[in-house]
Amino acid sequence: MNAVAFSIEKNPKALSTSEREAVLADPGFGKHFTDHMVIVDYDDGVGWHDARLCAFGALQMHPAAAVLHYAQEIFEGMKAYRTPDGRVVLFRPEENARRFRLSAERMAMTPVPEEMFLKAVETLVSADAGWVSGTEGHSLYIRPYVIANEPFLGVRPAKQYQFIVIATPVVSYFSSDAGLTVWVSTDYSRAATGGTGAAKCGGNYAASLLPQAEAYDNACDQVLFLDACGHQRIEEMGGMNVFFVRKDGVLVTPPLNGNILEGITRKSVIRLAKDRGLAIREEPVIIGALAEAAATGEVAEAFACGTAAVIAPIARFKGKNLDIRFGANGFPVAAALKADLVGMQTGKVEDRYGWVRQVA
After folding, report:
1. Please, are residues 314 and 182 in contact by the beta-carbon 8 Å criterion?
2. Taking the model in full, what pTM does it have?
3. Mean pLDDT, 10 residues at a time, the chain of 360 residues
4. Which H, E and C letters describe the chain, residue by residue?
5. Residues 6+ apart with CB under 8 A from 328
6. Three-class HEC string of 193-211
7. Which of 263, 253, 243, 256 has the alpha carbon at shortest distance from 303?
8. CA atoms of 318 and 356, how far apart (whole Å)
9. pLDDT at residue number 1
10. CA distance 5 to 166
11. What is the spatial distance between Cα 104 and Cα 201, in angstroms, rounded to a whole number?
């Protein structure tokens, strides 16, 4: 479809204002969903068609749908924010649209045109703008995804897909800025060279669940993955990129190597840090060398970043025969970057880069 036009069918059972406000008072994370969703169908030979906003509800799916057997699916994560003057805005949605396309290509799926992606997100957020809270620390988390819904049993790319967008009101993913304790996994890998590490697909997250459970068993908040070959190079956490702050003000992060998700928050942090005068080095970080550098104070801070958490300080890496501490003097660099980034996302800091897109 060339012109992106969405039919609009409002949900007759939408929550009342008082019911919605009761949910928004304590939404949790991913527990409640807005009144509507967007669905667009794809058929080989026809293309994307029947774009529609409709009532949020269950999907009907054939038991042999390809996604259920071969995991052919992708997704994105992004947020809408309420600014102090009442506007509803998105943060860098064009970057999500671009990454969505790249993920589709890696998973042998027909990409959603970027303009359709943006229109779908804006259509849903506009319809459910009342779900975007102005309370500090609250936002509307948006989940666009594509699933292969063609019914067949056979290993090949599907010929039918559905593009769906849903949304959920959320609070901050981590409740404290005191610093995360992160389990360093040496038995499991998230991705390997030539794999799907750079694509945002469910299989990557499924692979992280067992080591994440191991992290919880060891009183840790999250899990950190090392390279699959030698388990020496730091790659990324279960759903976040990582940064390290040297005492000389240099910010270090592992390079994008095909195994690591190209985080939009990561990209934003690099730009903000450069403009604050910090030098950036995208280079391999060896876990053993990091332990020595942290012990001597050469590395002062560590933090993780991603859409859900924005920026979260890391106080400790913990693992088998491993204990690395950060933040002896606090996390001033992480705190300053987070304040700048969140301020820009919520309209409290000047949008110096044209990253904010108004929806309502």
Report:
1. yes
2. 0.96
3. 80 97 96 98 97 97 98 98 98 98 98 98 98 96 98 97 98 84 96 95 95 97 96 94 96 96 97 96 98 98 96 97 96 96 96 96
4. CCCCCCEECCCCCCCCHHHHHHHHHCCCCCCCCCCEEEEEEEECCCEEEEEEEEECCCCCCCCCEHHHHHCCEEECCEEEEECCCCCEEEECHHHHHHHHHHHHHHCCCCCCCHHHHHHHHHHHHHHCHHHCCCCCCCEEEEEEEEEECCECCCCCCCCEEEEEEEEEEECCCCCCCCCEEEEEECCCCCCCCCCCCCCCCHHHHHHHHHHHHHHHHCCCCEEEEECCCCCCEEEEECCCEEEEEECCCCEEECCCCCCCCCCHHHHHHHHHHHHCCCCEEECCCEHHHHHHHHHHCCEEEEEEEECCCEEEEEEEEEECCEEEECCCCCCHHHHHHHHHHHHHHCCCCCCCCCCEEECC
5. 297, 300
6. CCCCCCCCCHHHHHHHHHH
7. 243
8. 37
9. 44
10. 18
11. 9
Q: Residue 19: what are its φ and ψ, rounded to 5°? A: -65, -40
